[in-house]
TrEMBL record:
<keyword id="KW-0472">Membrane</keyword>
<feature type="transmembrane region" description="Helical">
    <location>
        <begin position="12"/>
        <end position="33"/>
    </location>
</feature>
<dbReference type="InterPro" id="IPR001107">
    <property type="entry name" value="Band_7"/>
</dbReference>
<feature type="domain" description="Band 7">
    <location>
        <begin position="63"/>
        <end position="227"/>
    </location>
</feature>
<dbReference type="InterPro" id="IPR036013">
    <property type="entry name" value="Band_7/SPFH_dom_sf"/>
</dbReference>
<keyword id="KW-1133">Transmembrane helix</keyword>
<feature type="transmembrane region" description="Helical">
    <location>
        <begin position="45"/>
        <end position="68"/>
    </location>
</feature>
<keyword id="KW-0812">Transmembrane</keyword>
<protein>
    <submittedName>
        <fullName>SPFH domain-containing protein</fullName>
    </submittedName>
</protein>
<dbReference type="Pfam" id="PF01145">
    <property type="entry name" value="Band_7"/>
</dbReference>
Amino acid sequence: MKENPLSSLPGIPFLLAMLLLAAAGIWLLITGIGPDANAAGPASIGSVFSGIGMAVLAGFSLTGLYMVQPNQAAVLSLFGKYVGTVKHDGLRWNNPFYAKKKISLRVRNFESGKLKVNELDGSPIEIAAVIVWQVQDSAEAVYNVDDYESFVHIQSESALRTMATSYPYDQHEDGQIALRSHATEVSQHLRDELAERLADAGVQVIDARISHLAYAPEIAQAMLQRQQANAIIAARTRIVAGAVGMVEMALAELQKNGVVQLDEERKAAMVSNLLVVLCGERSTQPIVNTGSLY
């Protein structure tokens, strides 16, 4: 069911008109039952009934007044049938027989609870997200689901679980999308998942971002050690690669400038010493040779 815009009358002018009608009805009623009522005869009886009718009509018509706040919509139905939606704010008037249900169109947000799920590699993690949403189609929000606010909360948790199982926690290879390192891509996936689930409820997802992400407590320490080991390996790999390049450059410069002629055994010794100096964690203690190289 799609939203159908419905026109309405301004409430203040209608209110003034009904007050005048009620005042006229009361005046006729007073005139009909006044001291000169017996002399007037049937005319006074007509005034009484006319006054009563005008007052009742004015009172019944006033029940059609309702207030619409800014960024709010009034969904109107007649005996269970959807008639239309009024979005003009202020005091409005429609048929008194219309049932009216107010729906907020303001932007709302909430933070989901911390969910415990298994990521793509099977490791248990804790994840939560902040969802920013807004009712876009008031008719769908009222008639397509029983409680659209509860529907948004439940479907958001379901979409978050589905998204979390699609990616690993950490990136294990180049080009792989991970929960911790690719926040933009993960948020877009979550928004798309939510938009698909909430479309039938007339709800638009404005933004969805992860607010909490961590390994589950039972494996947090082990995962921390693995992360530290990966960092150490990566650092050592870069250090060794840099040291090998520096040794190659040193040997090439010595040979190019003819500073010293080294045989293969001395080259191997020199390479070993340079690698120890460049790759060692602690400062080395040099040994000064004052004699012959050989």
